[in-house]
Amino acid sequence: MDADAVCAGVRELGVAEGSAVIVHSSLSALGAVDGGADAVVAGVLRAVGPEGTVAVPAFTPQVADPFPEHVGDAAVDEERARVPLFHADLATPMGAIPNAVLGWSGRCRSRHPQASVAAVGARAAEVTARQPLAYAVGRGSPFEWLYRERARILLLGVGHNRNSFLHYAESLVPHHRRKVRRFPYLVDGERVWVRTDDVGDDNGRFFPQVGAEFGAAGGARRGKIGEADCEVIDCVPFVGFARRRLAELLR
Fold it and tell me: Which of 93, 123, 97 is nearest to 108 (CA)?
C-alpha cells in the first residue's frame, strides 16, 4: 500500500476535497505502507485536496508533574526539574503518524503543554490558533473549531478509546468527569508549575460503548484501508449523540 491507496481508501469512506479531518491512527494496524507514516499523511492530504486540512492530536503527557500530590523535597525537586517544557517540536507519544505531521513542512501546532493539536493544510493556522490552559479539549479549543467546521473524524486502525473528540463531547456534559493537569510553564521567563482542571480520562469505560452505539445506528462509514478497520464520522451528529449518551451514563 502507498499514499495513493491511502487516498483512495479515505475517499471511499466519504472524505471529500476541502474537508477538515482529525485523524486518530495506528501505523502498524495498516500493514505494510510504502513510505511509512509520511505516506499516510500524504495520502490523507491528497484526499482532502489543497483546500482541505488534516489535524491530529499531538498530546504530550510527558510534560507533567511526576509527583503531583507530593509537597516536595530535594529528590522530588530534582525529578520535577527534569520534566521538559513544551515546545513546538516536542515529540508526541501518540504514534508515528502524529509525529509525521509534526515533521511536515508548514505544519502548525497549538500551544497547550499537554494536549496540543497539530495540523497541516489550508486552514491549519486557524485550527491551532486558540487553546485554553484549562479544559484544553473543551470550549475554545481546536476541537471546538473542528466541530464548528463540521470536521470528519477519521479512525485509521484504532477504536473509540483513541477518539479524542469524545473528550470534547464530555466537556459539554455538566456532570462530566474531572481531572487535574499539572505542568511546567514559562511565565515572564520563569519556569513555574501550573495547575488546571480538565475532563477526566475514560480509560476504556464508556467511550468504546458510545462509539459502537453510534456506529450501530448508522452514523459511521466503515471499511478497510490496507489491513486496518477504519471509520469516518461526521463530528456534529457524533458529538450530539455522545453528549446525550454520556450524560445518561455518567449519572
Answer: 123
